[in-house]
Design a protein that fits this description.
Layout (H helix, E strand, L loop, with lengths): L2 H10 L1 H10 L2 H5 L2 E5 H7 L1 H7 L4 E9 L2 E9 L5 E16 L2 E14 L3 H10 L5 H8 L5 E4 L2 E5 L15 E7 L2 E6 L1
Antiparallel strand pairs: 1-9, 2-3, 3-4, 4-5, 5-7, 6-7, 8-9
Helix pairs in contact: 4-5
Amino acid sequence: MEINQLLADVVRFRKEIGMILDSLDPDQLEQGLFVVKDSLLSGSLKPFILMQAGGMVQDYTIKFDNGQIRLRAVVDAKQLGPLDIDYKITISEFRFDEMGHKLYGIFSEVANPLGNMVQKLAFKAALLNGPLLKTAVRMGNVPFIQVDGNNLMIDFDRMAFIEKLPENITFNFISSSNGVLTLTYL
């Protein structure tokens, strides 16, 4: 990445970068720990994340607890109408190094339609293909997520932001508990 583009992105997202930097603990960083608080994602950065979702996500909360990532959201699923969705994701493998950038996990899904009767019938039909997440990934043409049963794989290499990170940065997943997601980094 060129320095001009990097500087432009820093200025463009200076408010969000400031929030992230304010949430970090220098002592933890010196120990090689990168700790993300769920309050950062569900609070300070929420307006930015909702704006990036382009109106599809009406509201959400993220919690890190008991080794899981819990995501609750109200989404506008187009033909299916508004949905209240609750995911519990357990990370089984997190690879973020020169060999690749992928997250593997197992998830459970609870989804409730909030729309009219026709949308509720369409919702039930969508569940015939497996978890709603699988249908959403297929219908939304989301190339960086794969769903097989209740197994999930997120391929960060298929996301544009990965090109902006240094090639030699390595993250390892440590835990998801007590409101924080903890990673080590090199």
